[in-house]
Amino acid sequence: MSLIGSEVLPFTASAFKAGEDFFEVTEENLKGQWSIVCFYPADFSFVCPTELEDLQKQYATLKDLGVEVFSVSTDTHFVHKAWHEHSTAVGSIEYTMIGDPSQTISRNFDVLNEASGLADRGTFLIDPDGVIQTVEINADGIGRDASTLINKVKAAQYVRQNPGEVCPAKWEEGSETLKPSLDIVGKI
Amino acid sequence: MSLIGSEVLPFTASAFKAGEDFFEVTEENLKGQWSIVCFYPADFSFVCPTELEDLQKQYATLKDLGVEVFSVSTDTHFVHKAWHEHSTAVGSIEYTMIGDPSQTISRNFDVLNEASGLADRGTFLIDPDGVIQTVEINADGIGRDASTLINKVKAAQYVRQNPGEVCPAKWEEGSETLKPSLDIVGKI
Amino acid sequence: MSLIGSEVLPFTASAFKAGEDFFEVTEENLKGQWSIVCFYPADFSFVCPTELEDLQKQYATLKDLGVEVFSVSTDTHFVHKAWHEHSTAVGSIEYTMIGDPSQTISRNFDVLNEASGLADRGTFLIDPDGVIQTVEINADGIGRDASTLINKVKAAQYVRQNPGEVCPAKWEEGSETLKPSLDIVGKI
Amino acid sequence: MSLIGSEVLPFTASAFKAGEDFFEVTEENLKGQWSIVCFYPADFSFVCPTELEDLQKQYATLKDLGVEVFSVSTDTHFVHKAWHEHSTAVGSIEYTMIGDPSQTISRNFDVLNEASGLADRGTFLIDPDGVIQTVEINADGIGRDASTLINKVKAAQYVRQNPGEVCPAKWEEGSETLKPSLDIVGKI
Amino acid sequence: MSLIGSEVLPFTASAFKAGEDFFEVTEENLKGQWSIVCFYPADFSFVCPTELEDLQKQYATLKDLGVEVFSVSTDTHFVHKAWHEHSTAVGSIEYTMIGDPSQTISRNFDVLNEASGLADRGTFLIDPDGVIQTVEINADGIGRDASTLINKVKAAQYVRQNPGEVCPAKWEEGSETLKPSLDIVGKI
Amino acid sequence: MSLIGSEVLPFTASAFKAGEDFFEVTEENLKGQWSIVCFYPADFSFVCPTELEDLQKQYATLKDLGVEVFSVSTDTHFVHKAWHEHSTAVGSIEYTMIGDPSQTISRNFDVLNEASGLADRGTFLIDPDGVIQTVEINADGIGRDASTLINKVKAAQYVRQNPGEVCPAKWEEGSETLKPSLDIVGKI
Amino acid sequence: MSLIGSEVLPFTASAFKAGEDFFEVTEENLKGQWSIVCFYPADFSFVCPTELEDLQKQYATLKDLGVEVFSVSTDTHFVHKAWHEHSTAVGSIEYTMIGDPSQTISRNFDVLNEASGLADRGTFLIDPDGVIQTVEINADGIGRDASTLINKVKAAQYVRQNPGEVCPAKWEEGSETLKPSLDIVGKI
Amino acid sequence: MSLIGSEVLPFTASAFKAGEDFFEVTEENLKGQWSIVCFYPADFSFVCPTELEDLQKQYATLKDLGVEVFSVSTDTHFVHKAWHEHSTAVGSIEYTMIGDPSQTISRNFDVLNEASGLADRGTFLIDPDGVIQTVEINADGIGRDASTLINKVKAAQYVRQNPGEVCPAKWEEGSETLKPSLDIVGKI
Amino acid sequence: MSLIGSEVLPFTASAFKAGEDFFEVTEENLKGQWSIVCFYPADFSFVCPTELEDLQKQYATLKDLGVEVFSVSTDTHFVHKAWHEHSTAVGSIEYTMIGDPSQTISRNFDVLNEASGLADRGTFLIDPDGVIQTVEINADGIGRDASTLINKVKAAQYVRQNPGEVCPAKWEEGSETLKPSLDIVGKI
Amino acid sequence: MSLIGSEVLPFTASAFKAGEDFFEVTEENLKGQWSIVCFYPADFSFVCPTELEDLQKQYATLKDLGVEVFSVSTDTHFVHKAWHEHSTAVGSIEYTMIGDPSQTISRNFDVLNEASGLADRGTFLIDPDGVIQTVEINADGIGRDASTLINKVKAAQYVRQNPGEVCPAKWEEGSETLKPSLDIVGKI
Prior knowledge:
- Chain A contains six helices and nine strands.
- By secondary structure, chain A is of the alpha+beta class.
- Chain A has one domain: 3-Layer(aba) Sandwich (Glutaredoxin).
- In chain A, a hairpin with a 4-residue loop joins β6 (112-113) and β7 (118-119).
- The longest helix of chain A has 14 residues, at 148-161.
- Chains A and C meet through loops of A and α3 of C.
- β9 (132-138) of chain I pairs antiparallel with β9 of chain J, so a sheet runs across the interface.
């Protein structure tokens, strides 16, 4: 059974955010607004900084949509801070970078690779109730494209605000949705 | 631990394909070429036909890339045939539609909702060795966009053909890749 | 131990009935009147529509006898609706068609084939207390004859209304019954 | 899971047959020809003799169809002999009456009522490979009608002899059967 | 540990008694007076009727001694009735014949042969508190002699009525008993 | 399940016999001829000596029938010797007196009272194969009558020597036996 | 861990004492005064009577010291009585002889030989609180010397009455004891 | 079950003996000659040195009888050496002093007090086969008297050299023994 | 997981201290002030006295720092006293020497060598809350240097008194400490 | 039981060393020469860099003594490389820095804090056979002093090269050692 439709499990972790001191984050911080949680294997490794920078480029748009962004690796918050300081790509990041050295969050989201102790490249969209709405995971070496998240967010928000309607494939904001009813069964 | 990097588990099932008689499919059919396996909850329901039709629209491109496509629901192959016959959207489908009433495949890919007996909306990209490379799952009501698959396929194929290089975020065919080495640690 | 004499186990399912919207059915709907529950393997398959049509032909008579009829397969209610729309034989059906994709009801009545995920061809007569009175199950390929149900219903109803009498073999309405007593032991 | 499609389990028992001495019967005697096994609760009880007599009336026809008949109760073979001697109805029986005081056969066919130590009224049709093809079980007080067995036997034999065809509902010898194929899906 | 000195375990069964309708018997019917419970393998078999007839010949004497008699086999009460009707020997029986098809009583008294489902030839003398005082069991083929029960009953009753005295070997009513005391230790 | 029909279990014990030194006895000594094993609670107690003396009076007759006799209590062989020396009744005993302080034999024959550590008053007849043929057990205070053993021995020996015949109730040497056959079922 | 320092475990047994009727003894009878419990293998055996007679010769002295004496074997109280009557040595015994046929007491004091069912030759000194103070056990064939008990009793009583003093090796009444203190550590 | 009659269990330990270097001792050193093993709680404590000195006084006599002596406490061999050097009483000891800090030997002889980690005051006599012949254990504060060991040794040696004879109570070298035989049962 | 940061487990033991009588020590005595617990294998052995003497030389300094010192071996307090008396090195010791013959404390601090029953050479620094702050353990044969403890104590005390500061490597009293803050991450 | 005297457990990990590419390290790399393994909680944290720099200052001396040095934290080798690049203190390090994100090595050496996922500050000295000779662990906030390692190494090497001698407390190269013998027991 996938995690889709399940509520995020509890955790406590230390995090870094540009311009703030280190602070504690729990699963409660993922609730109350829409959240994107973006796992990646390791600070100071190769694909990772480009993915995080790409996500940063969508950050303003996501904020406008009421979405908060959290990146997570099994590195410590100390390392996040150092990476932020020394990497041009990562240095631009404004969202919260969570340290998960105890591997609790990576286990909670089922993305911990036990052999390496690192997280798979998983992206999760979470609604304001803390319920997971979409999951996307790529093998190592295949970067993600953060821009595809925007439409997912809009579709998920539309469905939440309009109970009884569903967004068809390739749906974009403003295009038509479907209203499930006996009559359209087999009519599409 | 996610399914990323694991080999597809064994199954045997009956399938429908336009213009052919019913035939048997096993996990071996997912190997030897790139494969996309697309799960959806139910034939004759709402979001599903638009998603399957959207996938059909990418089918020629995917074929050119050497990718075979399989859709799976827990409906029988009889129902797939009937749906194909009676639905305009579904009637256009040329790829293989697998029936999974025994729920084996849905369990193998960790997308069976035990309470409803239906599959979550999961899309899997599988390499020619039968190893899962990408996963994407949406909650009910949120349609997928098949066009995003094209870039994932290209990135995965590039990484397979060029060991020692990785595709950064938002990578598109022809753009630069990264060659992991000691020197670029912390330099991106 | 057979299910004869046991009460139907709890379930919740979605159902289709011609001229009505989809609705929820539970084991409580099988009580309060006599019920026939007719399992079959799959919508859009071969023997099944002739059996369901045959049962429909007895529906008026069964209604007159105070018997409600429910068909069940592991297909969804969406598929039932589509089948009803597209099949001449099935299109005539007026009774309730229950969808059992979670396989709960088929398991409850001990007719789920685990390997195929489909139900055996079982017919159950249930009294107003929800207690199973008769069972009949045929292997695949052997159709049932719904007309034999009428006499079973009448015999079961007679026995319920006349405690202390039993219906001998080949009993038909109006013919004599037996009153068990010490005196007729060994006298028949 | 019902017993349909499963092979009869092993047993050893003593039996009585008119005009022969007591003899031993095993599950092997149910194979090599078609067999009907008819369970009933108790010798010298009420519904039972009428059912057994009714079955005897079909015995010649069943023999002509290559079907052997076995009745089974948890009484001993001694009691079967005595009942045969003293009951007019039972005295006419020519088929084999098996004694099952150890309750093994009744358990094998899932019809033993543990509380009473008696068998439910179950009738089983078994093919020459010892595989169960049809089951019918009635609650106490509701007699069976042996004549309905004739058509079941014919349908089961037809399906066995004509692989690839199925008998629709209400099928009788000589009437049409169905040949499952892709083309008739949804066409009936 | 033998059953001597233990109280009879609970059971519920149907019984036959000449001149009465079928009736229910429980372990309570074995209490309140002295009881003899006589197990035998099977109605309509060979040694059994002679033993039961022999017991009947002692029945008047036993009744005078305040002893009730119960015979038990794993046959049903229906069969007991039929046997009583058709056997000269058994037809004379006036005591209660209990049917034990559920094998509960035979198990309670440790005389069930699991392989055959029949009871061993055991005779039990039970006091008014339901406590087992004597046991006698013979292998198949060796008949019992009911007359030896009379002296056992008298000895058991004497001991119950005269606490502090014991009946020596071969004791008969009226002959001397022993009063256990320190003084006769080693003096007999 | 009673011990009737089961073979005696292994044991090793010390025994006393008048006119011989102490010697070892095992279950093998119970085989090769017919044996009677007579348990009693305690040497130097009350009912016991009269029973043992009574058994001695039948010893010559039993020897003539090829039956060896063994008495058993949980006392030691030392105590048996002392009792034999000091008791008039016991002093007459010529058969073997086995000491069972380890309680093994009493447990093997299911007559050990765990609370008191003493044996119940059980008498067992064992055939030359070591198989138990009859059991008789009395509560404390009720003496046995050894003369009833003679007929049991004769019946058991007759059945062993005449396979296919059975001894009816109250059978005595020379009187008729029964030959079980289909024809006499229900005729006695 | 030895039994030294542990309290005697509960038991109930029958006992014999010259000039009294049989009576019940429990572990409570071992408390309230000093007690010696003397186990031996078997009445009417060889070493045992000399040991018990030897203990009797110290009985008056032990009584003067406030010590009660109990002998125990797994023989019954009946046998104790008979032995007392017939043995010159044992006939002199005035203390209590406990019968332990249930082997409970022998087990409680860890001296039961499971293979033989007899007790080892163990002597236990028990203080008024029921706590075991000394143990002495000899293999079969090696007699004990009861006179050595007197000094043990005196030493144990002295220690009990003079908390803070200990009796050195070979201590006899009246000789010096030791007062443990820091100063004499290593000074003896 | 006491340790009487059981063989000593394996151990390896370091030991001290006056005039020798430290050396290893195993259970094999207890075999091949008679051995006395004397446990005591603690070096440098109170009763202990007087007991060990008392044992030393018997050492020459024991040696003459072919008995080797071993003392054991849970102290180390280092401490034994130091105690021997600093204590007048202990300084006289010529026998082997075993260190048992791993508590193995104390556990093997069932004298370890788990709470304190110290050994009870137990003395064991072991025959040349390593079989324990006598046990004596005193509570803390009650010293032993080594002279009583001499007679035990002589009796045990006599019994070993004269199979078939036993030493009665209070036996001393040269006095009469008993020859167990049927004739003296109950004659002592 | 090491014991660092865990609270000392409960124990009760006897101890020796020069000029005082023996007294009881528990884990509570390790709290309320800083404590050093120093394990060593055995009294009267080789490296040990030099280590304990070395620790004594730091005792005054440690006392001035508010640190209490406890040495522990699995020897008894009796042996500690004797060693103190007879060894020049050990005779100088003023701190508490705990006896641990029950091995409880050695187990609690994870330094018991099960095979030898002796403690490893472990030194523990414990804060006033009973929480272990530093551990140091050497293999047998490698002596410790107590003077290195002084700096550890000072560092631990400084950290406790100045929450928010940490002592860098080679820190000595008076030298600078570090104040962890976001700003110095990666700056050292 | 501490890890002292046990062999290092197997592991595989990635490591960084200045001037080399990333490379794999296993437990075999710790053998064949003396090794120091130094755990610390986290790269880019506070006490850690001073400790690692301090260790670097001893590196030349340790190399001369034939000792290889390995630092370990649960950070990745990527992070070690980055830290080496950006920290002045860490930048001087010439020894191997092992990444242990899978936490295997930290668990093997019993220093993983499960709650934080970080290693305790433990230093281990390992001999050429891979056997752990010394352990030292400090709580967070208390830095280690690498110079104290030099003497430990020398003592451990001396003991290895001179079997039969031990180094007393505060031993330094060239000073006297002790030769354990009976004669010096209690003489130091």
